[in-house]
Specification:
Blueprint (H helix, E strand, L loop, with lengths): L3 E2 L11 E7 L7 E2 L3 E8 L2 E5 L2 E5 L4 E4 L5 E5 L12 E8 L15 H9 L4 E3 L1 H14 L4 H16 L4 E3 L15 H13 L6 H7 L4 H12 L3 H19 L4 H7 L5 H12 L3 H8 L2
Length: 288
């Protein structure tokens, strides 16, 4: 089974991801990504694969996964049929090693946590008192923003750095023999969209950048980004709009057109869909 590189969408006004995965089952394929990841299962049961380890999960399962470690959660059979009305749900936190900047892990205060991260290339199940503390913090962080949210992550770092209640999952040296084939076109496509998001980008135009047919490109994009091309483009544009709303006094309509929206009503609709508030409410909240 070949692992693919897959990434969760990150809001462009945030430095790391806090995400609720909810559905009939967990949709991820066998995949990896450069971000470190914490996965707290809040509902459902099944099998999880981390590296060459196969184990079982249920409600309350908490796993920390290192950068580029392949993993997969497979729900029990009933979740893929009509045998249960229950949903699969998990809270996921992802962060990159340099999400605060180069040298972040080199400061003296971070040395215990850096030591912990060095073990994470095998994946680990967090247990005991540490699991209870981190579970509570993750559930609170879903409703946090700004510095409060960042502080929550640092509290988790502190618990992990001083914790010895965990089981390592993959075999020693597993990752050393693993080959990853992250597609160069993945970064080419992402960079092209970010650079040109203020223009009227078309599907054929972006597919051509990746040297793909449009249908192939759509499937590739959805598989790796877990969003359609249009959904991702709207997130990029709304992220840029958030920056302008917070750093300039430009009126909303001007910002909408500057970010690539040709229709103010569509801009307002997409903004509310992604940010759960209107542009005016967003500007009002950040100015408090």
């Amino acid at each position: 089974m070949k692992a693919i590189e897959q990434r969760l969408p990150r809001d462009f006004d945030k430095s790391f991801i806090v995400f609720i995965e909810r559905g009939k089952f967990f949709p991820c394929p066998w995949h990896y990504h450069p971000e470190y990841e914490l996965v707290l299962v809040t509902r459902s049961k099944g099998r999880r694969m981390v590296g060459d380890h196969i184990g079982y999960f249920e409600e309350g399962d908490l796993v920390f996964i290192g950068s580029m470690v392949p993993h997969l959660w497979i729900n029990n059979t009933e979740y893929y049929s009509s045998e249960t009305d229950d949903l699969a749900e998990a809270i996921v936190i992802q962060f990159e090693e340099i999400f605060i900047g180069e040298g972040f892990l080199e400061i003296p205060e971070m040395h215990p946590f850096k030591t912990f991260l060095n073990l994470s290339n095998r994946g680990m199940v967090i247990k005991g008192e540490a699991r209870l503390k981190i579970t509570a913090l993750m559930k609170e962080m879903v409703h946090m923003n700004g510095i409060q949210r960042l502080a929550g992550l640092f509290n988790i770092f502190d618990v992990l750095a001083n914790n010895n209640e965990f089981d390592l999952l993959a075999s020693p040296g597993y990752q050393k023999g693993t080959q990853f084939h992250g597609p160069d076109r993945f970064n080419i496509i992402t960079e092209y969209i970010v650079r040109n998001s203020h223009h009227n980008i078309t599907l054929p135009e972006v597919a051509a950048q990746a040297n793909m047919a449009v249908t192939t490109f759509c499937n590739f994009f959805k598989e790796h980004h877990r969003l359609t091309f249009v959904e991702y483009l709207n997130r990029v544009r709304i992220g840029h709009a958030c920056q302008l709303l917070s750093s300039t006094k430009k009126i909303v309509s001007e910002i909408a057109y500057e970010c690539g929206f040709n229709n103010l009503a569509n801009f307002n609709r997409q903004f509310k869909k992604i940010k759960k508030m209107t542009p005016v409410e967003y500007r009002r909240n950040i100015s408090k």
